[in-house]
Amino acid sequence: MPNELTMNSNAAIIGAGPLGIELAVALKKAGVDYLHFDARQIGYTISWFPPQTRFFSSNERIAIAGVPLQTADQSKATREEYLAYLRCVVQQFDLQINTYEPVTNLIRKPGEDFLLITRHANLPREWRVKKIILATGGTAWPRKLNAPGEELPHVHKHWSDPHDYFRKRVLVVGGKNSAVETALRLHNAGAIVSLSTRYDELPAKSIKYWLLPEITGLLKSGRITPWFNTTVARITPSHVHLTPSNDMGEKAEIEADFVIPQIGYEADMSLCRLAGVELRGEAEVPVYDPATMESSSPGVYLCGTVIGGTQRRYETFIENGHVHVEKIVAHLTGHARPAEPTPYVNPES
Known about the structure:
This protein is 21% helix and 23% strand. By secondary structure, the protein is α/β, with parallel strands linked by helices. Strands 1, 2, 3, 4, 5 and 17 form a six-stranded mixed β-sheet that branches. Strand 8 (192-196), helix 6 (212-221) and strand 9 (225-227) form a beta-alpha-beta unit. The longest helix has 14 residues, at 79-92.
């Protein structure tokens, strides 16, 4: 049983990514009493980005809570700049976020209140709230290759510094922006890079426009070795076995000191399930009212990329999630809901 008395609040935000933080600011300004939890640190999934990775999005589109996002060279924000920006927003509005306090259970109590069980310093705590807002994101963990050997220690689903791969043979797996950017950065740091992709050519719309000419030239020249129309069949400590993804592919066994899969992420929808939210399809897309962001489970709201479940083609991200904050606050406070924004088309789709 929990070691503390139950503490009460009107609402609880679960998740402290950019939109979770923006929602916290909006609730505080509206005078709504709330609690805020995250299983890790604020902006945790952004902290996975390799050093100096720049956002695809322009700064004004990923700025939150009315706070301008400026960079020293007027370019798009890096991982480091954006994490510093999030910390500044939290400090500016003096937000109280219970970080490193995961929600381990969520129970609807009689009278339609919710009981949250969290774990803090390895001890359980209880919180009773009237409403829940899930801002848990859509990139909880890397998508699996589903190939034997992918758990070997030289398979890096997250990588931290290009220097680690200097003069080493690296196979990057994937064909969209993350894979391309990884291949380029490692090549430019002196790695011997190969790229395996299931496509017969790189999908230009899914790659940052300023990277496409460079990767295309390097693949054509063979300075980065292309393996089109292939998937990973097996990984050993020294080799990767590739198999054709279609009739145009070929089997291959290539040497690799490191393997870096960059094939996307999966969402963790476990809290949606605990909250009784209806999830549809293999991607577990939650059912919700787009006018209010209230889910199929009364009193449970969705904010941000969680509404897309596990996205195969990304259509929900920070840029078109700001309006979720406005809709949720309007519904909780009884104000008129905001007008629908102009639809935003993801350049990476």
